[in-house]
Specification:
This protein is mainly α. It contains seven helices and no strands. The chain starts with a helix and ends with a helix.
């Protein structure tokens, strides 16, 4: 119950965060950063709560992963709409997540999601460009620091683009290895 409430809180943050990235005047950068960090905290806490209270389930895991997908993809799409990043990463994340769900339930006929190590790390790291661009938007940062954080965010987006492509290829050839 608590885990699902934490996940639902993160889901409720997806639209305002995406809107704030797409239209930076919608909220202050510090509010945006706070919402992104809150989303990350709920992502950590929901799994811990589910395990602690014995409520972990495949449905809860699906809810958590779908929520993560919606949150990071919509936030990155907001960055793409604003022209801060290429739209390629959010498109690839949508393809990778679709592949993840479809091959877990239909190809491998499992009753829960079938994770890969690369996909798991990608899922964790997709939050970090959102943090970087939120920090870069803080008005009180020195210009040189803002530029450095933004460059780090852009490099991370391209590295995640490459690792997402690798994850898609890895998942595509997994049935050949089985």
């Amino acid at each position: 119950m608590i885990a699902n409430l934490l996940t639902a809180l993160r889901l409720s943050l997806a639209a305002p965060v995406a809107l704030a990235f797409a239209l930076p005047d919608v909220m202050t950068a510090s509010t945006l950063l706070s919402l992104v960090l809150l989303a990350m905290a709920t992502d950590i806490a929901d799994g811990q709560a589910a395990r602690r209270f014995g409520t972990a389930s495949s449905r809860g895991m699906l809810f958590d992963h779908v929520t993560d997908f919606i949150f990071v993809t919509s936030g990155l799409a907001g960055l793409a709409i604003a022209g801060n990043i290429s739209p390629l990463l959010p498109i690839l994340i949508a393809a990778a997540f679709s592949q993840y769900v479809l091959d877990s339930y239909f190809l491998f006929k499992q009753k829960s999601l079938r994770m890969s190590i690369l996909g798991r790390w990608n899922g964790v790291l997709y939050f970090f460009p959102l943090v970087a661009f939120s920090i870069a938007a803080l008005a009180w940062l020195p210009t040189s620091l803002t530029a450095a954080v933004e460059i780090c965010g852009k490099i991370l987006v391209w590295l995640l683009t490459l690792s997402t492509i690798a994850s898609i290829v890895d998942r595509a050839i997994a049935p050949l290895r089985a």
